[in-house]
Amino acid sequence: MQDLTPSRDSLDPIEIASRDEISALQLSRMKTSLHHAYDNVPHYQAAFEGADVHPDDLKSLSDLARFPFTVKQDLRDNYPFGMFAVPRTEIARVHASSGTTGQPTVVGYTKSDLEIWANVVARSLRASGLKAGDVLHNAYGYGLFTGGLGIHAGAEKLGLMQVPVSGGMTQRQVRLIEDFRADGITVTPSYMLSILDEYRAQGFDPRQSPLKVGVFGAEPWTNAMRAEVEDAFDMHAVDIYGLSEVIGPGVANECVETKDGLHIWEDHFYPEIVDPTTGEPLEDCEFGELVFTSLTKEAFPIIRYRTRDLTRLLPGTARSMRRMEKVTGRSDDMIILRGVNVFPTQIEEQLLTIDTLAPHFQIELIRKGRMDHMIIHVEPTLAAASEIERQASAKQLGARIKSTVGISTEVRASEPGKVARSQGKAVRVVDNRPKS
After folding, report:
1. Which candidate, 297, 327, 130, places its Cα nearest to that of 223?
2. What is the DSSP string of 182-248?
3. Are 342 and 330 in contact (CB under 8 A)?
4. What's the pLDDT at 97?
5. How far apart are CA 83 and CA 96, in angstroms?
6. What are phi and psi of 402, to 5 degrees?
């Protein structure tokens, strides 16, 4: 793999500022953001008053813990524009969630918000090892999902030649990567595995592809998957983090030279870690739920938003700003099976240790009698694998999950290509248990 470390003089000064400078900027911006939310969003005025707190009560960064959380239900309750802090005439764009689990959540952006978003995405892509003049294959979905357009604006800001492919049509993805000689790709990690399969199906050696770096986000993925992709393509694989409620992709990003966690762009987004059960703040390096407060957003300020993502905060390394560890799962997609907490990433980690199984999987939850039961659908790496070989691989995976995660599962190894493929964001868990 090539050394893609960006030059020190290409960084924004705040990326390498002292912690005192960063904290002072955060406090000043946080005071402004709290007042902006309180003065212009009825929900925040009511929530602050209900918690007996006022923006003027913020004297230090630690005082933020006195303010109430914002949760996704608050956004749904104020659908569509009740959380906006500026008149609709100042809104330049809206994005929204799919609404598959409830009322869609709508977020808005002023022109200034879009400029800030482009800047933090450009910073993220530069941290990933890309530079002006490089070719970026953007396979994130376009539309109301923030991924495609968010990356698009940042790539333009950085001066990349961008190929706005979006998701799907995997055969064409491979053709364009090869024909346009893409230096980098932005895509969900699960869909990158589908692209890898297609490379091999078309007879291409992925290690000879032009790709130098993949920037993967929108779903949790493991360091084992990083190793799989890096080895397959002989390229760097880095993590990008974001969510629409905070701004979209570009809230945090790994630095290609260290790959030791995602540096949070703390000049725009203030992070906290709280206990997922009690909501009490935790110290840096303690594991818990990630919470964000926006520091510069105009249209849609967000105060202490509970992301449900589980991670911990660590000191900066390649940049002064603090890092977050790779997200290991979400407090709301955690599976509790017979009293054991299980995350899909734990299954993935064990799957990737077995050479005879492909990295594609899907978890199915069913009810057997009065007990919940987990079925893990996988497939072999070789099309010629016999039924006996498939069952042996399935048995091996089941044993690994039992010894590491502590649960008994049923592993079903089907023929190659039978496990559902991602055309964007992976559906890792299918819950077929009775609803009543």
Report:
1. 327
2. -SEEEE-HHHHHHHHHHHHHTT--GGGSS--EEEE-SS---HHHHHHHHHHHTSEEEEEEEETTTTE
3. no
4. 80
5. 13
6. -60, -45
Question: Other C-beta atoms within 10 Å of 23: how many?
Answer: 15
- Distance between CA 55 and CA 231 in Å, rounded? 50
- The parts of the chain modelled with pLDDT lower than 70 are 98-102, 436
Please tell me the chain's helix, strand, coil percentages from 3-state DSSP, rounded to the nearest 5: 35, 25, 45
**pTM of the complete model:** 0.89
Per residue, what are the HEC states of 24-73? Answer: HHHHHHHHHHHHHHHHHCHHHHHHHHHCCCCHHHCCCHHHHHHCCCECHH
Residues β-bridged to residue 272: 291
- CA separation, residue 417 to residues 89, 187, 202 (Å): 49, 21, 15
Instruction: List, for residues 212-250, the tens digit of each pLDDT value.
Output: 999 999 888 888 889 999 999 999 999 999 999 999 999
Backbone angles phi, psi at 17, to 5 degrees: -70, 165
**Residue 250 and residue 314: Cα distance in Å, rounded?**
18
Name 339's Cβ contacts closer than 8 Å, sequence gap at least 6: none
* 87 Cβ neighbours under 8 A, 6+ residues apart: none
The answer to whether the beta carbons of residues 117 and 79 sit under 8 Å apart is no
Give residues with Cβ within 8 angstroms of 165, minimum separation 6: 137, 138, 139, 172, 173, 176
pLDDT digits (tens, 9 = 90+) for 101-160: 457 899 999 999 999 999 999 999 999 999 999 999 999 999 999 999 999 999 999 999
Q: State residue 224's pLDDT score.
A: 87
Tally Cβ neighbours within 10 Å of residue 383.
9
pLDDT at 426: 80
**CA–CA separation, 49 vs 67, rounded Å?**
10
- C-alpha to C-alpha distance for 378 and 397, rounded to whole angstroms: 10
What is the residue whose two structure tokens read 């945090």? Answer: 252
